[in-house]
Amino acid sequence: MDKNIINELVSILGSENVLTSKEDKINYSYDATPDVQRYEPDVVVTPSSKDEVVKLVKLASKYKVPLVTRGSGTNLSGGTIPVDGGIVLSMLKLDRIIEIDAANLTATVEPGLVIQRLNEAVAPLGLIYPPDPGTVTTATMGGSVSECSGGLRGLKYGVTKDYVMGLEMVMPGGEMIYTGGKTVKNVSGYDLTKLFTGSEGTLGIITEIIVKLIPAPKYRRSMLVIFDDLDKAGKTIADIISNKVIPATLEIMDNVTIRTVENYSKIGLPVDAEAVLVIEVDGSIEAVVLNEFDTVNSICTGNGAVSVKLAESDSDRDAIFAARRAALPALAQVRPTTILEDATVPRSRIPEMLKAIKDIAEKYKIRIGTFGHAGDGNLHPTILTDESDKEEMARVHKAIDEIFSTAIKLGGTLSGEHGIGMAKSKYMEMQFGSSGMNVMKKIKQALDPDNIMNPGKVFWRG
Prior knowledge:
It is built from 15 helices and 18 strands. About 35% of the residues lie in helices and about 20% in strands. The strands form four sheets. It has a seven-stranded antiparallel sheet with strand order 15-12-14-13-17-18-16, with helices on both faces. It starts with a helix and ends in a 15-residue tail after the last helix. The protein has four domains: about 90 residues, 2-Layer Sandwich (Uridine Diphospho-n-acetylenolpyruvylglucosamine Reductase, domain 2), CATH 3.30.43; about 120 residues, Uridine Diphospho-n-acetylenolpyruvylglucosamine Reductase, domain 3 (2-Layer Sandwich); about 110 residues, Alpha-Beta Plaits, CATH 3.30.70.2190; about 80 residues, Alpha-Beta Plaits (2-Layer Sandwich), CATH 3.30.70. By secondary structure, it is an alpha+beta fold. The longest helix is centred in the last third of the chain and has 20 residues. Strand 5 and strand 6 form a beta hairpin. Helix 8 packs antiparallel against helix 10, helix 8 runs antiparallel to helix 13 and helix 13 packs antiparallel against helix 14. The mean pLDDT is about 95.
């Protein structure tokens, strides 16, 4: 990078906030995504205010330098990897809770705020911010909005886009715009808030976020349900929803995952089970919660559950959820490389998708553990492999191709909560067709004509 650009960056931020050493830059050449190429940025900057962000964007626009925004780097689609070098813009210093407005059930925050901190701040008010990605204790609000992340509560409470009410954005030329607001109803003009939510930093930079809060549920009941057949588990999922019960959590683990979790944490899971469901119903009226709980229990036993373990205490509940939350760390211990995918299908097609994943694993002679948010069709086929084994990786890539093509054929989507980034961009036309892709490209070209905002993401470059 031209030394004049570095000097201008230093004049804006101070030398301590402009990192140019090889040692510093290599830390920003990758994120939590496995099996993707690393790219080193030319420089890493850490602004402390939105005014500095505006100046940085104007500088990048002036010199047509790529600008990649980054939070904690926990994303799983290669979304923060600087494929064209340029400037990595770390937002971690913009981490304030600007306002908690209990009267309007909103919070206004900066993008570098860790999601868990927001929930800790609103809990004394009897409120929650429902989106809860698996990395909730480290993931930032800005990253979550950019990827439109989900989580274990997505079935009942929705995902990030359902809670973003307004945004403050710095556009590629350095102009600041404001979208949405605190009003419950707002249909003035195009819905720019929804456009920017999930845009993965390719259209602008978020500097402020207004989110919706909701009252925390007062009552909850949880269970761990064990099945000896995947089809029975799948039918149970469909029957629960068709009986008009929407659990807060409805998670699934297959046999590979069950065995791995039990070996990892020794929490008493039956290693011969074909599937386990983790289910929780919640609400503000105890009688309603108990009625839904009884309905779910009856459906599970009626569909041939081998056993239903009910949580009688908070410690029992914690143990049940520990099994589900241990899925990824347990699977990650098995082989050097863990590829966590994010295929999503209509929930009625879950049994077909689970069977397809099992068949794909056998076809390509690889090990896949599947878990995920069964209630909303969002499955995480997790491939256990070793990226140094080139022959095996060739089979893995063919398996991934088939997983996504199967999801699309079943009426599904490439991602339920991880985003596209660079990891899934080559599949986008398969889902949207050339016409759909052209519409997206026109939006990108109109808002970012110099392609400086997180280039190389969402759109396949071959």
